[in-house]
Amino acid sequence: MSRLIMIIVIIALVYLLLKSYRNQPPKQDDTRATQDMVSCAHCGVHLPKNESLLVDGKYYCCAAHSRNQAEK
After folding, report:
1. What is the pTM of this model?
2. Pairwise CA distance, residues 63 & 37, whole Å
3. What CA–CA distances, in Å, run from 69 to 23, 30, 49, 55?
4. What are phi and psi of 58, to 5 degrees?
5. Quick check: 54 and 70 in contact, CB under 8 A?
6. pLDDT tens track of the chain, all 72 residues?
7. How far is it, in rounded angstroms, from Cα 23 to Cα 16?
8. How do the domains of the chain map onto residue ranges?
9. What is the dihedral of CA 24, 26, 30, 34, to 10 degrees?
């Protein structure tokens, strides 16, 4: 009889632990930093500011586009 009570108590504890684990809200990753976005002065594509090329105060997505604008 004591074994049966012990098994019931263990099952109840496992059930309560699983239930409390499932009710926890998911953790949000707040470590992501936002980045400023700019658009290419030649083609208009949007890209992060740190990945763009700054030439004469304008942002470009690649060196070819910055050369094309410089030639005009």
Report:
1. 0.52
2. 18
3. 56, 39, 19, 10
4. -120, 150
5. no
6. 889 999 999 999 999 998 888 777 767 766 667 789 999 999 999 999 999 999 989 999 999 998 876 566
7. 11
8. 36-72
9. -150
For residue 21, give the H/E element and its range. helix 2-22
Cα angle 22-25-28, degrees, rounded to a multiple of 5: 135
Place of tokens 């690649």: 62
User: What residues form DSSP beta bridges with 54?
Assistant: 59
In our burial notation (b when 16+ CB lie closer than 10 A, e otherwise), range 15-42 reads: eeeeeeeeeeeeeeeeeeeeeeebebbb
